[in-house]
Specification:
Helix content is 50%, strand content 11%.
């Protein structure tokens, strides 16, 4: 069946013996690197003919949008077929034999899926944490664990804050990546349970090991070769169900979203007499949303390249379907068929596109907070950083700031910077708000740099003010996209107040923001949103005197400051798990004290610094 189209009957013109012989022809042999060419040609023809017979599955040569094929199959005969070898149809490739799933000009991807009773319901992770488990209990069967570890470390480095006590600075990647050497079933289970107890469950599990075979009633099943518990050199062959039990917690909401198996034959069904399915199938069938595996042997070089491309896209908020496509494009450059060996079992929620957009925004916000941590660290240890390294360190900070802005610009309409391409008003408002934040952080960096490069003071002041103007502009676009977002609107009012010295012309916006924040504080579904609303209300009331004319401001300052202080006292008394929100609010008040009064002295209201200082002390 293809969508809602009528069922189509088909046959596969291939006997089981010939099929198994051809599958065996896909196993690499050092004696003859071209030995698999006949088997590849055979499966190119077999799978392409299969798709031709499904008359409702057609590729429109005029539609260049990405196409995701969901192959919903059982673990029986169909699961054996390497559909990944299908060639692009002639209407888009002519006489060229271009693999459909590695076509450089058309974005096609295909995932396998187990038919289940209900739709997938899970939230795609925005803060990744990787468990890298590897094992080589047989000294004759080594694995490239050092190369895999180096690749994974390079992937998470951009996410990491600097280690606090090393002037260097050096990224602290332990929050995002854990190596588990000489992995056993029990050690994997234990690591996952420890992470749940720490309230930081692993979102991605990457297993590097060899695959093995076991005869069950005279037929072959494929297994995972890892270490026996408590040993480094005793082999234990694990089936998919046992591995699934180790990976799945009691609360399925805390299970890994992605499991990747750099294991030969981990996607190989093996037989249809005992149809348990491949390792990958069994993991997916147990409930793990996305499983990446290898349906044939995989070269060690290919496994490293696979991790480098696939995990970079997955960890940095990329669409997993496009990550799969781009990984095939990288793998097909090599003189082997690793690109076709890669197989993915996946079930995605109906709202996966909106979820991925939200994930991207949350990760970019996290990235900006990480950049702040690097800026703070560098300026704190400036005198201890070697002179020869200082310019490089500053260039790195500038790159981080500009990268955030560049990535956010990718979501704008190329023809109109006032239009966001994201799916709904909430995402669009958040998008513009993050652009405003990115420019505000860049403005703050240039201002702070004056202390360390005073000769460029005039230029740095000009650049800081220009970035603040851009920030206000994008916060304004966020306000227009969704006036109900009290956070975005508060940021707009804040910058308008310090850049122009008055809010008399936007008093209606002040009252709408107040109403939205009060509503959030009373009706928010979670306590964290209530805490953020308190921060908005505190800052909003501090600025309320600016909505009055010059002759009545003085009377309003004391009253408004007291209301603001009441909100901050409530915020300060909240649970310590909301310290991030508290610290963010405190930092915002510090800008009114240490940055804006100096940068914008001409228009800056003199009483505002005193009010901010008084309120900041509440957050100590």
């Amino acid at each position: 069946m293809c969508g809602s189209k009528p069922e189509v009957s088909f046959s596969i013109d291939c006997g089981q013996y010939d099929f198994i012989r051809m599958v065996n022809g896909l196993r690499y042999t050092d004696a003859d690197p071209e030995a698999s060419s006949g088997a590849i040609s055979f499966f190119n023809h077999l799978t392409s003919k299969f798709f031709e017979d499904l008359k409702f599955l057609k590729v429109d040569e005029n539609d260049f949008s990405p196409l995701h094929i969901r192959l919903v199959i059982t673990p029986f005969e169909l699961a054996q077929i390497p559909f990944e070898f299908i060639l692009s149809p002639s209407n888009i490739a002519g006489d060229q034999k271009i693999p459909l799933l590695a076509n450089p000009e058309r974005k096609f991807t295909m995932t396998r899926e187990v038919r289940q009773e209900s739709e997938a319901r899970y939230i795609w992770p925005h803060k990744p944490r990787i468990l890298f488990a590897w094992a080589q209990p047989d000294p004759e069967m080594t694995v490239p664990y050092q190369e895999h570890l180096a690749v994974l470390e390079s992937i998470v480095i951009p996410l990491a804050k600097p280690k606090k006590d090393i002037p260097g600075p050096v990224p602290n990647i332990g929050e995002f990546l854990t190596e588990l050497p000489d992995a056993s079933l029990e050690s994997i289970r234990k690591k996952l349970q420890e992470a749940i107890a720490e309230q930081a469950p692993y979102t991605h599990v990457h297993i590097l090991a060899h695959g093995g075979q076991k005869l069950v009633y005279g037929v072959t099943e494929f297994r995972l070769i890892i270490c026996k518990e408590g040993t480094k050199d005793v082999v234990q062959k694990i089936d998919g169900n046992s591995l699934a039990e180790a990976l799945l917690p009691t609360d399925h909401d805390l299970m890994p979203t992605v499991v990747s198996l750099s294991v030969c034959d981990s996607g190989n069904v093996g037989n249809t007499i005992l149809p348990s399915g491949s390792l990958a199938y069994q993991l997916h069938n147990s409930g793990i949303p996305c499983v990446f595996a290898s349906q044939f042997p995989l070269t060690q070089q290919g496994s490293v390249k696979l991790v480098k491309t696939l995990f970079y896209r997955l960890i940095h908020g990329g669409d997993p379907r496009m990550a799969l496509y781009e990984t095939r494009l990288d793998l097909i450059k090599e003189q082997n068929h690793d690109w076709a060996s890669l197989v993915a079992y996946a079930r995605f929620p109906e709202d996966i596109n909106e979820q991925l957009q939200a994930v991207n925004l949350r990760m970019l916000f996290g990235s900006m907070k990480v950049t702040n941590a690097w800026v703070d660290h560098v300026f704190k240890f400036w005198k201890e950083i070697e002179d020869g390294q200082k310019e490089k360190v500053l260039q790195d900070l500038e790159t981080r700031l500009n990268t955030s802005i560049k990535e956010l610009y990718n979501f704008l309409d190329p023809g109109n910077s006032k239009e966001s391409k994201l799916a709904n008003e909430l995402l669009q408002s958040e998008h513009f708000g993050l652009l405003g934040s990115a420019y505000k952080r860049k403005a703050e960096y240039h201002y702070r740099l004056i202390e360390f490069d005073p000769e460029k003071k005039t230029d740095l002041i000009a650049r800081s003010i220009k970035s603040l103007e851009s920030a206000k502009e994008f916060y304004g676009y966020g306000l227009e996209a969704n006036p109900a977002s009290h956070w975005t609107t508060m940021q707009y009012l804040s910058l308008k107040a310090v850049l122009e010295g008055t809010l008399t012309d936007v008093i209606d916006i002040w009252y709408v923001t107040k109403r939205m924040a009060e509503r959030a504080e009373k009706t928010a579904k979670n306590e964290e949103d209530q805490i953020w609303a308190l921060g908005t209300l505190a800052e909003l009331y501090m600025l309320k005197p600016l909505t009055h004319s010059a002759d009545t401001i003085k009377e309003e300052i004391e009253t408004s400051t007291q209301v603001s202080m009441d909100y901050l006292n409530k915020m300060a008394g909240a649970d310590k798990k909301y310290n991030d929100a508290k610290e963010s609010t405190a930092r915002q008040f510090e800008r009114y004290i240490h940055w804006w009064p100096i940068l914008l002295a001409e228009k800056y209201p003199p009483w505002l610094k005193d009010s901010a200082f008084q309120l900041r002390n509440v957050m100590e």
